[in-house]
Amino acid sequence: MGIAVPEIETPAHPFFRRAATLVVAGAIPLSLVGAAATATADPLLPQISVQIPFAPAPGPGLITPAADPADPGAFPPEAFPPAPPVSAGRNDLSVNRPMPDPNLLAPIDPQRLHLPNPAAPAPAVAPIEAPPGTLRVGSVVIGRPDFMTPEQGKMFNDAIAGPEAGIAQTLDSAGFDPSRSDRIAADLIGSTAIGASAGSMVAAPVASIGAVIGAICGAIAGLPMFPTGTLAVMAFGAAIGYGFVASPAIAVGAALGAGVGVLQGLLTPPTVPAA
User: Fold this and answer.
1) Which residues pair with 134 in a beta bridge?
2) What is the DSSP letter of 267?
3) Range name among 93-97, 221-225, 249-253 with the lowest pLDDT average
4) When comparing pLDDT for 162 and 241, which is higher?
5) Computed over its alpha carbons, how large is the radius of gyration of the chain?
6) Which of 21, 116, 218, 227 makes the best surface tag, with the fewest CB within 10 Å?
7) Which of 203, 168, 191 is nearest to 262 (CA)?
């Protein structure tokens, strides 16, 4: 009998809820710019590329199962069981797919895991469609703010869903079950966003001082362009001052969040028995 796992949702604690809201709001300008830059391209193309070294598969009959297990080519192809079939529509790139069912999560089969082969990757994975009226950053889902139009919300969601689909494809290529690949990819993206937001919040008191210093420097530099140019340079200087101080904390928070997300996706108990 499987073990029930609660549905993935935004953490209920006010701190995490605020962190999720901040990261979504902060990512909106970047996602809109990225979406506009690729408006003439296929909207299903944006996804990250993960290059991992791969050892060619050995020829039949050259190595016995008693060979060194640390060698990626130590076992013949038949030593690895075939990958299970993927859910219908998961690899259909003509349309975004619905969010996966969190109550269907396969176990991890260590015997099936291997380094991905860049020359023969798993089929491309379709991006996940966010629920109506929401913004989705991996495992974090919040309501779309009133100031954002549905079209802008879709551009934001598509900009996040593309890299997430690329991560899921890479995990498929490494031998993970598709349901587990989707879970790890979602937890990785969501936890990275929360970690980056938490780092920004921790650094905010000190970073605010940097913003003030940057604004003062910008005001001095923009005096010849008074008044409009002065205000613009002040804002630019404040942003640089804040980012200069806060960026290390944001990077550390994002790295810690990514590690937590991967562990969560790997260690979540399965809800369906092994095939």
Assistant:
1) 143
2) H
3) 221-225
4) 162
5) 22
6) 227
7) 191
